[in-house]
Amino acid sequence: MLTEFNSIPATEAEQGIVSDLVRTLGPISFTLQPTADRIPTIWIDRDIVHAVLRHLRDGATRRFQMLYDLTAIDERQRVHRDGLPKSDFTLVYHLVSFERNDDVRVKVPLAEGALEVQSIADIWPNANWYEREVWDMFGIGFAGHPTLFRILTPPTWTGHPLRKDYIARATEMGPYILTEEKERAEQEALRFNPEAWGMKRHSENSDFMFLNLGPNHPSVHGVFRIILQLEGEEIVDAVPEIGFHHRGAEKMAERQSWHTYIPYTDRIDYLGGVMNNFPYVMAVERLAGIEVPSRAQMIRIMLAELFRIASHLVFYGTMSQDVGQLSPVFYMFSDRERVFQIIEAICGFRMHPAWFRIGGVAADLPQGWDRMIRDYLGYQSKRLDEYDKLVMRNRLFKARTIGVGAYTLEEALDWGVTGPGLRACGLGWDYRRPAPLFRIRPARVRHSDLPQRRLLRPRGGPYRGNPPEPAHHPPVPR
Fold first, then answer.
1. Helices and strands in the chain: count of H runs, count of E runs
2. Is the bond preceding residue 85 a cis peptide, omega within 30 degrees?
3. What is the rounded distance in angstroms from the CA atom of residue 108 to the CA atom of residue 85?
4. Any residues with CB less than 8 A from the CB of 248 and at least 6 apart, and which?
């Protein structure tokens, strides 16, 4: 049975998805929800989650190859639920079809006393970590998950931080006291247990050794480690532990206004600057129906691209450092400083300017901005040619990277790889183009190993050597 929200007719895309599901799975109840982002959104019962998602990936006329996101919402305090199924906690699955440039959002209502659904980690491997995060943050279980452990908080953590009734400030907690007993308990909790991960301690011929590898770089926050299972000198298996990265960004938003939360977004990726502001303000603008002036749109794109260049220079330099080259990281950090000088001249701050606003930007461009940009582009283009010779054509660099970390397009889709990592598999997909957010010509290569993925980043990113075609006329210098 199909229920339309508040008698609003279903869109053609929604009707097609539902009809396809009914033909395959029989008469099943669906509720359609209209949304501000116009993504088809379907509510289904938790008992059919696995069957519906399996069909949408493998059997549907409109196949959705990628699990783009999986999260949850604590809706126990929600006031306006007209037409929506009763739900204390809601699971949200976001699927993407690259063949049709389609999205679909599947929502699952859960009662507080029955917080469990079937795992879909056997359908999409990347669901493994998504489901662990949902369990960690909300306490929703996934039946059949092989390793449903915490992932963003320590194993000794109490409670689920993104529930609405969880404390929002450190001052709401009692004083922290680390006793010797508690310290021993925390250390013991970090001890690796192979059996919990389905790993054996012995083979027929030898005992396995388990080795902690990491931290791999001083800039990696938290104790990022890889636990290696070794038989002699051969790596048999590995388990990554990404570190305790939960910083409560969403929880902080509960105590902020729409405007005052903007500075908090700057720190989500501390190298991204205003790129972090972008998705937040766009979401608010879409919800509120706010039209951003074309000049402000172009200014936003330009600032985001400057931060993208600065971020990639860090990646490029530290990558070469990690494989044994020391000089490139100093050259590229020097170039990054030039980018920050431009950003500071425009925004007044360097790394975290919090400069975007709902509906536009904080201020117009200063006098002389165009000369700064042109001078920098002329300088950086030549430097990238030098880095190509210094790094990418270096004999030792090639020996240590070619063929390393390679994966196929099918594996990339299964594991939720996006951006340059996906285009490096030969799929000419850049989300800004089909969205459409900006008119660009996506570049792609055919073999996704480490060097190929690098080629799709600093040198113009997705632009294939050509400048982007603006959706609007560029700002006139003032």
1. 14, 13
2. no
3. 9
4. 161, 168
Cβ proximity of 213 and 226 under 8 Å: yes
Provide the residue type at 413 as one letter: L
Residue ranges in the chain modelled with pLDDT below 70: 1-11, 215-223, 432-478
CB under 8 Å, gap of 24 or more: what pairs does 43-47 form? 43/84, 43/85, 43/106, 43/107, 43/108, 43/109, 44/106, 44/107, 44/108, 45/108, 45/109, 46/91, 46/108, 46/109, 46/110, 46/114, 46/116, 46/117
Q: Report the pLDDT value the prediction gives residue 247, as an integer from 0 to 100.
A: 84
Q: What dihedral angle (degrees, nearest 10) is formed by the CA atoms of 445, 450, 455, 458? A: 140
Q: How far is CA 61 from the centre of its chain?
A: 28
Q: Which of 79, 77, 98, 102 is nearest to 88 (CA)?
A: 77
> Strand 141-143 vs strand 209-213: parallel, antiparallel, or unpaired?
unpaired
| Secondary structure letter of residue 175 according to DSSP | P
SS3 202: strand
Which tokens sit at 15?
């009707």
249 token code pair: 């960004």
Angstrom distance (rounded) from CA 326 to CA 405: 22
Residue 208 · residue 117 · CB < 8 Å: no
Task: Give every CB contact of residue 457 below 8 A, 6+ residues apart in sequence.
Answer: 312, 315, 316, 420
Q: What are the chain's domains?
A: 2-121 (3.30.460.80), 170-174+183-241 (no CATH), 257-463 (1.10.645.10)
Residue 137: how many other CB atoms lie within 10 Å: 23
> CA 432, 436, 439, 443 torsion: positive or negative?
positive
Q: What are the φ/ψ torsions at residue 283 (nearest 5 degrees)?
A: -65, -45
The reported pLDDT for the residue numbered 363 is 95
Q: What is the DSSP string of 242-271?
A: -------HHHHHTTS-TTTTHHHHTTSSTT
Residue 332 has a pLDDT of 96
Q: What tokens does 361 get?
A: 């930007």
Give residue 430's pLDDT.
76
Which pair of tokens denotes residue 239?
Answer: 């388990």
Provide the token pair at 120: 């879909």
8 A C-beta contact, residue 237 and residue 245: no
Query: How high is the pLDDT of residue 454?
Result: 56
Question: 292-296 — which CB contacts under 8 Å span 24+ positions?
Answer: 292/359, 292/360, 293/360, 294/471, 294/472, 294/473, 295/364, 295/472, 295/475, 296/359, 296/360, 296/361
Q: Quick one: which of 114, 116, 113, 92 has its CA closest to 104? A: 92
Alpha-carbon span 325 to 89, nearest angstrom: 50
How many other CB atoms are there within 10 angstroms of residue 270's CB atom? 13
